[in-house]
Write a structure and sequence with these properties.
Helices cover 90% and strands 0% of the residues. It is built from five helices and no strands. The longest helix is centred in the middle third of the chain and has 74 residues. The termini are far apart.
Length: 258
């Protein structure tokens, strides 16, 4: 049975070799590499788009923060301490969101740079493979022409040339697999194929949230005290101006009496 299986495999292999065009195999390999390169470029475009969305959200948060800061000052001037506190609390929440957005934008930028570096290296490899492919195809076509000429001159049968063609095909397939292996190595080295995961700790998150709330409340109290101090300083300056005006009027009255 083993002998029959071996003979069948040999015959099938010979038949496939006869109808398989190595030039088409090279073109197919180049097409697959080009598709992989285009996929990397699409990934880069998606990362850039996501980063732009985050940057737009960041700009909106900054607008909200400036608005809330102005509202807190107006509330203090109107003796509405409760409204000032509410505005400052919302401002502090937006500040925490802003810091989280900054981290996400930084991560996106890092991922974008990795993908762009991978795209440059992969593009170079694909172009190199394409150039070599065309050389091999030209060599193969020349070899085919030489074989046909020699067969017509010497009368060598087509079957006797199967060995040489099989060797050429084996070399071409080896080159194709080598190019594919190099492309995959570049993708792995660049981190594109890495699955990023992270483990979170619920207890640690709860404690961190409570600490952030304490820090947020402290920041609100400090800004509220600062606004009160500014208002008190303005009132003192206003009272001093009134006293100076009164003294000047008194001196003018006395001078007029004398």
């Amino acid at each position: 049975m083993n002998r029959i299986s071996t003979v069948v495999k040999q015959k099938v292999s010979t038949l496939l070799d006869r109808y398989e065009d190595p030039k088409e195999a090279l073109d197919y390999s180049y097409t697959k590499q080009t598709e992989m390169l285009n996929k990397v470029r699409r990934d880069i475009a998606e990362v850039i788009t996501a980063k732009k969305r985050l940057e737009m959200q960041k700009a909106k948060l900054w607008d909200n923060i400036r608005t809330l800061d102005e509202q807190s000052r107006r509330a203090i001037d109107a003796d509405k301490e409760d409204l000032a506190r509410l505005a400052l609390e919302r401002k502090n929440v937006n500040m925490m969101r802003l810091r989280a957005l900054d981290k996400q934008i930084t991560d996106m930028q890092s991922e974008q740079e990795k993908l762009q570096d991978t795209e440059r290296r992969l593009s170079s490899k694909v172009e190199e493979f394409n150039s070599k492919k065309e050389v091999i195809k030209a060599q193969y076509s020349a070899a085919e022409a030489q074989v046909r000429i020699k067969e017509s001159v010497t009368g060598i049968s087509e079957e006797m040339a199967d060995v040489g063609i099989a060797m050429n095909k084996a070399e071409e397939k080896a080159e194709k697999m080598k190019a594919k292996s190099q492309a995959l190595d570049e993708m792995i080295d660049s981190g594109v194929l890495t699955d990023y995961t992270s483990n979170t700790n619920d207890d640690g998150s709860a404690i961190e949230k409570e600490l952030e709330d304490v820090a947020s409340q402290r920041a609100v109290d400090e800004e509220l005290a600062k606004l009160k101090a500014e208002r008190s300083k303005k009132k003192k300056l206003g009272n001093r101006s009134d006293d100076v005006v009164e003294e000047q009027e008194t001196e003018e009255v006395q001078q007029a009496a004398t």
